[in-house]
Design goal:
By secondary structure, this protein is α+β, with helices and mostly antiparallel strands. It contains 3 helices and 10 strands; from the N terminus they run αβββββαββββαβ. The strands form 2 sheets. Strands 3-4-5-9-8-7-6 form a 7-stranded antiparallel beta sheet, sandwiched between helices.
Length: 179
Amino acid sequence: MRILLILILSLMLVSVSLAKEESLIMGPYKVSFDLNTTQKYSINNTIPVEYGETYGGIPYVVYRTIISAKNDSAAIYVNYFANKMNTNNDKTKSEIRDSSSSWFFDFDIYDRIIDGQSGVLGVGESDRLGGSVFDAIYWSAFNTTGDTKVKITSFLPWENGTLSLLKTIHVEMVGKPPI
């Protein structure tokens, strides 16, 4: 009995040690998350990716991080807009539907709290892309003159990466806005 108890406690400690919180600096943002996966993965933090201007004349900067596992990947995009944007969930749902639904034969959109904010999650199945794809967007305002949009696109399995990413991601502005 004692050996069984020691074995169970050892296994619990191993599973706890597999969880690893990642913390990245993406421009003026600190992004942290925990994939809670046993898969080996690497992180490619390429920042900034793009400087641009919306059709309405609002300057923006996009930062991107790619998470690569053996057969799957995910991307985190943090977009800073120099002015306040229309951040309601209906507009966000339209953005996900317009950018993603053409790739899928089965596509649904859900309201979801992400990083304590009201967000949207698109879930699709695609033969062309090799299975399930998850596309999430939420907005965070950091009491600046602009707005921050966080977009997550994940091909990681729901129960082995994506769900934990959505539950644990946290973005905070730790530096001066870039524009």
